[in-house]
Amino acid sequence: MSRLKKFQEILAQYRRHGWRLARVLARPDTLAELGGGAEEDAAPVFEGAPVAGSEVDAMWFTRPSAEGREAWELRLVGDTPYALFELFEADEAEEDRADVRREMEARLRDYAAPGTEDSRQ
User: Could you give the CA distance from residue 8 to residue 46 in angstroms, rounded to a whole number?
Assistant: First the structure.
């Protein structure tokens, strides 16, 4: 199955459960496939969400939760389903949320490509 098809299937699954695609992380070869015929100067976008270069293919989803909280899930795009989940309080600062999301991305990279950090040194 193509990477694009995997992205589309995961997106459809999450949308059925009320999640909104917030951001996409993509490896360089995946960026090229997702970009399709996009203009070179244009920032990459997939289904209306910004795409950022990464060491893994993943999708950020968000949806409202109980008591004004906000749920975020980082889903690996791969053969084996794997996701990380975080629930943010309504009054939590965006800077703190961004820190947690960066930590989640690091954990996902460690899961998807163990030993990658050692090989870069």
Answer: 10
Radius of gyration of the chain (CA): 15
Please tell me the pTM assigned to this model. Answer: 0.86
Strand order in the sheet with 70-76: 45-46, 49-53, 20-26, 58-64, 70-76, 83-88
Q: Token digits for 65? A: 């939760």
The domain ranges of the chain are 3-116
DSSP-derived 3-state class of residue 12? helix
pLDDT digits (tens, 9 = 90+) for 33-76: 876 545 455 568 889 999 999 999 999 999 999 999 999 999 99
SS3 89: coil
- CA pair distance 87, 63, nearest whole angstrom: 10
CA distance 21 to 49: 6
Partners of 88 in the beta sheet?
A: 70
| Single-letter code of the amino acid located at 91 | D
CA distance 104 to 121: 22
Give the SS3 label for residue 39: coil
Q: Say what the pLDDT of residue 121 is.
A: 32
